[in-house]
Amino acid sequence: MAAPKVAIFFNLQLVLMKAIALSAQSERMVREQDFLVSKTDLKGIIKYANQPFIEITGYTEQELVGKNHNIIRHSDMPGGVFKLLWSVISVGNEFFGYIKNSSKDGSFYWILANVTPSFDTNSKIVGYYSVRRMPKRSALREVEKIYATMLEVERQYPNRKQGAQASMDYLLNFLAQHGANYEEFINTL
Mean pLDDT across the stretch 66-93? Predict the structure, then answer.
């Protein structure tokens, strides 16, 4: 009689492992009416997160506030995109871009992000404000291809910093060939 109990236990374990694997591959959809908002300091430490942002990440507010924004970074995102983002916002400009993020349970979600510097009364950057919304599904097919190539470029380098620089250079060359900057390019998708 012990054998059926053991078989049931292993079957339950297998079902649980499959459910976890499916969760890690499943996509959460940003609703059209949602605006995912967060504020960070100069180093990307989250200082504020609104309820739609908290909900889609699967973290609690306490788990997010005080953590680096890269807590939600998905491994499919090339470092070169974030290098470009930081090069744009750190000099006072706003950035628009498609980003794939991870939720706490391993699922993922795509967003169209707008990241804007926050200034004090002396025009000094004191942090960053990001509003993210539902992306255009048709644009994601093109973005995924570009990001996959950028990741291939990054893997050719011995460290992340060199890889991120090389993939950003790839992206900038790609954009130059299309006669656009990143924001102009994504707006055409």
Answer: 97
pTM of the entire predicted model: 0.84
Percentages helix, strand, coil for the chain, rounded to the nearest 5? 50, 20, 30
Residue 77's contacts (CB-CB under 8 Å, 6 or more residues apart) are 99, 100, 101, 147
- Cα–Cα distance measured from residue 52 to residue 33, given in angstroms and rounded to the nearest whole number: 10
Residue 56: C-alpha distances to residues 11, 28, 52, 60, 95 (Å)? 31, 7, 6, 10, 22
Whole-angstrom distance, CA of residue 92 vs CA of residue 81: 17
How do the domains of the chain map onto residue ranges?
A: 2-188
Over residues 133-144, the pLDDT tens digits come to 999 999 999 999
The tokens describing 148, both together, are 């996959």
DSSP 3-state assignment of 149? helix
- What's the CA gap between 107 and 102, in Å, rounded? 6
**Does domain 2-188 fall into CATH 3.30.450.20?**
yes
